[in-house]
């Protein structure tokens, strides 16, 4: 290689590395963690995030099961099966039905409260 070409490659590597390094530096020191973000939110929004946390975790677990099932199959990746495919109109649009999930959560809460009341009643007798 000639000398001007090597000089251009060195400059490109230095500038490229500098831009990438600056991006990493800015990302590390400007992006808040999840806890910091929650602390800065208003109490109403924070309560809403906390209520929906379990729903999001369950959706994420279901998505991971679908990904594992898709990875184990012999079919191409774009044939996702259970996930909604907008081009073909197949699959479910929702991974987890929020209304049914909230009903199940409320029923479980009521059951636990009922059992606690029954235990208190037994103690009083």
What does this structure look like?
With 125 residues, the chain is an all-alpha fold. The protein has 2 domains: 1-31; 32-124, no CATH class. The chain contains 4 helices and no strands. The protein has helices spanning 3-30, 34-40, 43-72, 98-124. The longest helix is centred in the middle third of the chain and has 30 residues, at 43-72. The radius of gyration is 26 Å and the shape is flat. The relative contact order is 0.05. The mean pLDDT is 84. It is a single-pass membrane protein. Belongs to the CBP4 family. It is found in: Mitochondrion inner membrane.
How does the SSE layout of this entry go?
Elements: H1 3-30, H2 34-40, H3 43-72, H4 98-124
Computed Rg:
26 Å
Main sheet makeup? none
Number of helices: 4
How many domains? The number is 2
Terminal CA distance reads 95 Å
Low-confidence stretches: none
Give the % helix. Answer: over 70%
Compressed to H and E, one letter per element, the order equals HHHH
Strand count: 0
Strand content: under 5%
Mean pLDDT: 84
The backbone outline, from C-alpha atoms, is flat
């Amino acid at each position: 290689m000639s000398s001007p070409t090597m000089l251009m490659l060195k400059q490109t590597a230095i500038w490229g590395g500098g831009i990438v390094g600056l991006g990493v530096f800015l990302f590390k020191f400007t992006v808040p963690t999840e806890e910091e973000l929650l602390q800065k939110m208003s109490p109403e929004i924070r309560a809403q995030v906390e209520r929906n946390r379990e729903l999001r975790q369950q959706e994420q677990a279901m998505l991971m099961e679908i990904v594992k099932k898709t990875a184990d199959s012999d079919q191409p990746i774009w044939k996702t099966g259970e996930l909604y495919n907008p081009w073909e109109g197949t699959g479910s649009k929702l991974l987890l039905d929020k209304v049914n999930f909230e009903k199940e959560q409320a029923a479980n809460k009521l059951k636990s409260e009922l059992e606690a009341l029954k235990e208190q009643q037994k103690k009083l007798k």
